[in-house]
Design goal:
The protein is α/β, with parallel strands linked by helices and 417 residues long. Helix content is 34%, strand content 22%. The protein has twelve helices and 16 strands.
């Protein structure tokens, strides 16, 4: 991922200290007037907008401040966002072209567009301002963040995932990471048009899904694992019952018969946590045809593999890994920490008999996300092997079928069983 510093366009002035001070003073002034006048704006944003305009004019008269029309409109919008939205972040959250928003303290806000990070021309007033916005985000979730509970994960109403960490753990001020939730999910044709997959690869994958192949999608953070999983899930026959399990619900399946489950973190008293492993175990009692785990990151992978081995064919999940072979190593590690008492050789055999396909997806230096590798898993003569079916070709800049793919190649990273 490249990082660039983007200058403000000629028609968009970067915020100055004078403007930020004016906005801060006016914010306090407007809030006081709204409370004094007992204006109710929950269901009447138009009324609030009119009130803000009137209060800005009142402020200018009282303090003899002179502002031009452009500044007036900017202040009006910023104050509205501060009162009913998420302050400086509201315009970024409303921008459909932004995928990630990263706040490193009050003066460093970064955004990601098309896989490329750039610095945004906006900032918060101070650390308290950042903290106030974070608390507004997590308030509907019943969560809190302070020195005694300095880390919080959550999901906004639109599905966007958030993670916040504040001092004393964050040394340079409160930090907030937002993975935005796309309102209109990517389609298969958009994936082909962007170069993420070829039509041949997509046909191969959709056939695999329709024929109830167990699929694992691997890749780094932000590589597009959930996006691909979402697209592939659209090809599950509508006659099947699906149970999805996620930490933050992002999957939007178009099937009618879907049961969506979401983990729950512990509350402020440290109780009430419901883990992915508990939900997977419960899902097995719900008569699923397929189980889809948004991301496998712990002991739940043992139950997922056992489900794949006991009749729930066509199940899918994702995992963080740098390649298909690394994905196997990650699975082996997660099974090991689940409390499974079997040997490493037995774990590899269980992985090989449960999984049929590993799809590895990654992000190229130009920010483009694409499928880099598709490998089949086989247990032959008690030996786990990976057979590459498609690999990414740097020359053509797309994934291509491997010559002689019918010949299985032993992975040097895997132990002999």
């Amino acid at each position: 991922m490249r990082l660039i510093e983007r200058r403000a366009p000629d028609n968009q002035k970067a915020p100055t200290d004078d403007y930020e001070k004016l906005k801060s003073d006016m914010h306090k002034f407007v809030i006081d007037r709204i409370e004094d006048d007992k204006i109710i704006y929950d269901d009447n944003q138009k009324k609030l907008e009119e009130a803000i305009s009137a209060y800005i004019r009142q402020y200018c008269r009282i303090y003899e401040a002179t502002i031009d029309r452009e500044t007036f409109k900017s202040l009006e919008k910023h104050l509205l966002n501060e009162i009913v939205g998420f302050g400086p972040l509201q315009s970024l959250l409303d921008d459909p072209g932004i995928n990630d928003i990263l706040i490193n303290g009050p003066r460093n806000i970064y955004i990601e567009r098309a896989g490329v990070l750039e610095k945004a021309d906006m900032r918060f007033l101070d650390n308290r301002h950042v903290l106030r916005v974070i608390r507004r985000m997590i308030s509907p979730l019943g969560r809190r963040i302070d020195e005694s509970s300095p880390i919080v994960d959550g999901r906004l109403e639109d599905g966007s995932r958030i993670n916040a960490i504040v001092p004393p753990l964050a040394l340079d001020g409160p930090c907030l990471s937002i993975r935005k939730f796309r309102k209109d999910p990517l389609t298969a044709q958009e994936l082909i048009a962007s170069g993420s997959v070829t039509e041949e690869v997509l046909n191969y994958l959709t056939n695999a899904v329709e024929s109830r192949t167990n699929v694992l999608i691997s890749g780094a953070t932000g590589s597009g694992k959930t996006t691909l999983l979402n697209i592939l899930s659209q090809y599950i026959p509508t006659t099947e019952r699906i149970v999805t399990i996620e930490d933050a619900a992002e999957l939007r399946l178009r099937n009618d018969h879907v049961v969506r489950l979401e983990t729950r973190p512990e509350n402020n008293e440290g109780v009430g946590e419901i883990t992915a492993r508990e939900l997977v175990k419960n899902a097995l009692r719900m008569r699923p045809d397929r189980i889809i785990v948004g991301e496998s990151r712990g002991g739940e992978i043992l139950d997922v593999l056992q489900a794949m081995n006991t009749g729930h064919n066509g199940s899918m999940s994702t995992v963080h890994a740098n390649s298909a072979r690394d994905a196997i190593t990650r699975l082996e590690m997660m099974v090991g920490i689940s409390g499974f008492k079997g040997s490493g050789e037995l774990i590899l055999k269980m992985i090989g008999s449960a999984l049929d396909l590993i799809v590895h997806i990654g992000r190229k230096p130009d920010g483009r996300r694409c499928v880099l590798q598709i490998s089949e898993l086989h247990v032959i003569n008690n030996e786990l092997t990976l057979k590459d079916i498609f690999i990414y070709d740097e020359g053509s800049r797309q994934v291509v079928r491997v010559d002689g793919a019918k010949t299985a190649t032993r992975s040097p990273d895997l132990a002999h069983i």
